[in-house]
Amino acid sequence: MVSSSEPSEKLRILLMPFFVTSHIGPFTDLAVGLAVAGAGVVEPTIAVTPANVAVVRSALDRHGPAACSLVKIATYPFPLVDGLAPGVENLSAAGIDAWRIDAAAVDEALTRPAQEALIRERRPDAVVTDVHFFWNSAVAAELGVPCVAFSGIGPFTALTMGRLTDAVVTNGDGSEPESSQEVVLRGFPWPEIRIPVTEMPEFLRCRSGELNPCVEALGRCFGQVMNTFFELERPFCELLVREGRAKRAYFVAPLYPPPPPAGVNEPCIRWLGSKPCCSVVYVCFGTYAAVSADQLRELALGLEASGKPFLWAVRADGWVPPDGWEERVGDRGMLVRGLAPQTAILAQPAVGAFLTHCGASSVLEAVTAGVPMLTWPLVFDQFIGERLVTEVLGIGERVWDGRRSTRYEEREVVPAEAVARAVARFLEPGGAGEAGRGRAREHAAKAHAAVAEGGSSYCDLRRLVDDLVEAKIRGRE
């Protein structure tokens, strides 16, 4: 690594994402956005561990050849973790060892030293950190430079989790609440939000009562960037600012580039081009959460029984469909193994619904494409994101109302009959999918307006650059 400690007229921003593809992608998009917004002024650098460089390069490729010259990549060593094979440094590729990466990433003693060494060596003018790396705000403060937190979630989810943090208490003996309990949140710009304990993020289900260090760090940060646009979550954006949850708030999405032309050379895109408008359900559960073989089998049989065309991105290595399934489905269905070109898929006229895990990036991509959603959350904040889709925005429906949980071992297998019923009903003419599509397209128009010149996200991104430039000038005085 080359030291960048000498003074520079450029605004040098160091961005540090969490060790998972769903965070590295948006961080890379933000880096490109900052470079474009501060043309000739901003010099962004993405800092990742060596095995994650390929993930950054893949995200840069979405923006075209010029992006590689706009954004630099720096590396720092991944922490030594017992039981983890060398080169496994991303939750999305770790399989059953993902918990080891997650535990190491948020362990200050393991991860801070290498990150802090890189920050001190490069001495950037500003640090943009993942909220998980709470210590970086303290490191930046010691160097006298601003630290901005970048959150992949929007204000609805952030405010909901903040209220859950306040509302959920452990039992008197220190054990976690009963799984049958339900938390009711009021005081939102919404009547009420009800969340069963089983659907809350894991870290909230067993708390010590101590203030989360990430919350403390956010209070120290120069500001917070959120991966949403103001018009999508207006009342919650306003509430976030009004409650002082961030010293400065910037709503900058959508940051990713428009999809490639319809003639992109991908078999799945060509297949979609052969299907009628709004007839296909696209199925994808993201890059991380595990889905059992039993559940994959029921999902396969349910998609078959629905009678609707489907495009399914399967990321379970070695999974084989039921005997005879591919022959019975024929050209009505298509499997994509590994990563799918999701933004290009959602932009295709044939896609009438997105069966999704409700990851924040996937929800945003569906909204921007104007595609309604069938919701099937699995982990983390996804059950909260589902409520934004179904209850607040009204652009989706749940696949299943049975027992659900953020814990793998507590989930019920959703039967094929329920999958078939949900898909068929959602895509039928005049059904919930059609009504949701109309509302989703209204939000899509707002998303495109937000990033156009003079739009809310366009202005917030430039305001962020201006504020950081001003902070750099003040620091010299």
TrEMBL record:
The keyword Transferase applies. It comes from the Eukaryota. It holds the Pfam family UDPGT. InterPro entries: UDP_glucos_trans (IPR002213). CDD domains: GT1_Gtf-like (cd03784). One of its GO terms (molecular function) is transferase activity. Keywords: Transferase. Belongs to the UDP-glycosyltransferase family. This is Glycosyltransferase. It comes from Urochloa decumbens. The lineage of its organism: Eukaryota, Viridiplantae, Streptophyta, Embryophyta, Tracheophyta.
